[in-house]
Amino acid sequence: DAGVIQSPRHEVTEMGQEVTLRCKPISGHNSLFWYRQTMMRGLELLIYFNNNVPIDDSGMPEDRFSAKMPNASFSTLKIQPSEPRDSAVYFCASSGQGGHEQYFGPGTRLTVT
Amino acid sequence: DAKTTQPPSMDCAEGRAANLPCNHSTISGNEYVYWYRQIHSQGPQYIIHGLKNNETNEMASLIITEDRKSSTLILPHATLRDTAVYYCIVRVALNSNSGYALNFGKGTSLLVTP
Q: Looking at the predicted structure, is the pLDDT value of residue A64 above 70?
């Protein structure tokens, strides 16, 4: 298995633009997580899905952020409009049913200028 | 979830055992201890987890005190590639149908030196 796949790996955009981050979880996994990492705040959970349904989105910073999981093999995290303070590394992770391990992707480094 | 306390940084000589402590004095009976690590510029990586008993796998050993208020992650023969931030997380394992969310703290930055 290729592991969790994220795209793009790097994204540079201007303030006000829409940004879409993509994630393909490991095949067969039924839970998917989006995290954000910054120097100031460390790793923060933004949202997690179970069986394609959002279970907890309390970590989503504000309405500019939205996440979808239209099927078991794909999820997106969208920021519209983007702001410089959204600059961070965004990680996607997945886990299997009953599994204790979360498998993380390589992350997307987002820079908003 | 129970709060954890870890030293911010530690050093270890290559080839020696690295012992990383974690205090979780408010842990509940149904909460597991998880360890993850994050090598620079990579996503976090699962290492090991335990509930009450000591655990060992190909990466590390986890020693949990009898009262479960603290634990130690042991890397038996540290290498330079083990330089990373190590996170101790305490979390109840939700039922198999709802997965679980991890709350990462600041972790311990382990530096393995030649």
A: yes
